[in-house]
Amino acid sequence: MLRIVLTIVLLVAGFTIIVDGCKSPKEEGTPVKSKSVADDFGKIDALPLEYKSPKDNPSTPEKIELGRLLFYDPILSGGKDVACATCHHPEFGYAESLELSIGVNGKGLGERRAFNRHNNIPFTKRNAQSLLNVAFNGIDNDGNYIPEEAPMFWDLRAKGLEEQATFPVKTLEEMRGHSFKEDSIANEVAKRVDKIPEYKQLFKKNFPECETVTIAYITKALAAFERSLVANNSRFDKYMRGEKNALSARELDGMKEFIKAGCARCHSGPMLSDFKLHVLGVQENEKNLLPDSGYNNTHAFRTPTLRNLRVTRPYMHSGKIQTLDNVMLFYEDLRGKPPPNKSVTWDNLDSLAKMVKVEFKNIDAIVEFMNTLNDDNYDRKIPDKVPSGLPVGGMIK
Questions:
Q1: Given Cys at both, which of 151, 224, 265, 332 links 63, Cβ 3.0 to 4.6 Å?
Q2: 264 in a domain, yes or no?
Q3: Does residue 291 share a domain with residue 335?
Q4: What is the pLDDT along the chain (397 residues), one digit of tens a residue?
Q5: Residues 141 and 71: beta-carbon distance below 8 Å
């Protein structure tokens, strides 16, 4: 099958723009501050048809199904009321429709979810990111990535899905609650799972060396399931693989304007993310008890993927932008207005963000292009029951 790498030559205002790979002047984990190459507009491409797994956690259908059960089982939360699926539900593209999620001590799903009457738990700190295509986190412009080193979270505080899966279990507002300390909840969860005969049998089948269930085995199973959640055959992917009729002329115009505006400098590669940290000055969420200063108090956050945006709103780390049109208006305003975040000045903004030039007249076309990145054909299977006997997905009904 013909594979078309998007290296487009655009004739704009009498000069040539070459679309090529975005080279960051800083190492991963450091906000980009220095000047980038003026004619380096970024490269975007199709996702691979298959994903890779870590060498010490190869994927199998049986392991994926074990991970699915754990993903929907609130046995992993301190109060046995929250599951991973509570805030990463297939109805919302394995993301969340709230600005900031309600984990512990909540009831309901999506926008119907609210804290219980007597509550002393805060909202989660940041908007829940989608797990779709998280298997490809860290993929570069040439399609290379290392699953064990995949960047996770808005602030890159974890590498790989196996490490990432431990954080929600230990976090007060997400799954832990007040009943257990951060350094004891993981062992408590593992003991609970180990006492359930069905889980014990499934872990022994998938991990023959497993005599006692530990948090490490639990996170390996969870990671195998989350890694299987791929949506890698959007119309954009089909076009990039050679199906020339997959995109309309209007959508191709939107792709051109997306690149011309400088969006692909950061939203690059097959995931349309460089997985690096950038300071944008996005509005704070007033539900946070304290301002969110991002990575190392720099107000920098990781570039999110642009895939499956139709089902994963709201947007940005604070969840404060509800529509794609308003996301584009945010970038248009960056050129002439102070950043919405009062703690960030123009001088603090990322150098690549300052170079973005979104024109109002092109916003509709760019949004039409971004909608070609949606792939609705992803795994939505929810188990009828979980081995603990607790409500599937936590208290979501």
A1: 224
A2: yes
A3: yes
A4: 444 444 443 433 333 333 333 333 334 455 544 333 334 889 999 999 999 999 999 999 999 999 999 999 999 999 999 999 999 999 999 999 999 999 999 999 999 999 999 999 999 999 999 999 999 999 999 999 999 999 999 999 999 999 999 999 999 999 999 999 999 999 999 999 999 999 999 999 999 999 999 999 999 999 999 999 999 999 999 999 999 999 999 999 999 999 999 999 999 999 999 999 999 999 999 999 999 999 999 999 999 999 999 999 999 999 999 999 999 999 999 988 999 999 999 999 999 999 999 999 999 999 999 999 999 999 999 999 999 999 999 999 9
A5: no
Q: Write the single-letter amino acid at 242.
A: G
Q: Is residue 55 part of a domain?
A: no
Closest CA to 196 of 87, 85, 76: 76
Which domain covers residue 366, as residue numbers?
A: 9-43+247-373
> Number of folded domains in the chain?
2
Q: How many CA atoms lie less than 13 Å away from 248 in the CB half-sphere?
A: 10
Q: How many residues does the chain have?
A: 397
Please, are residues 28 and 149 in contact by the beta-carbon 8 Å criterion?
no
Q: Is residue 52 part of a domain?
A: no
Tell me how far apart the alpha carbons of residues 293 and 301 are, in angstroms, rounded to a whole number: 9
Q: Residues 176, 104: contact at Cβ < 8 Å?
A: yes
Q: Give the residue carrying structure tokens 């948090």.
A: 215
Contact 132, 231 (CB under 8 A): yes
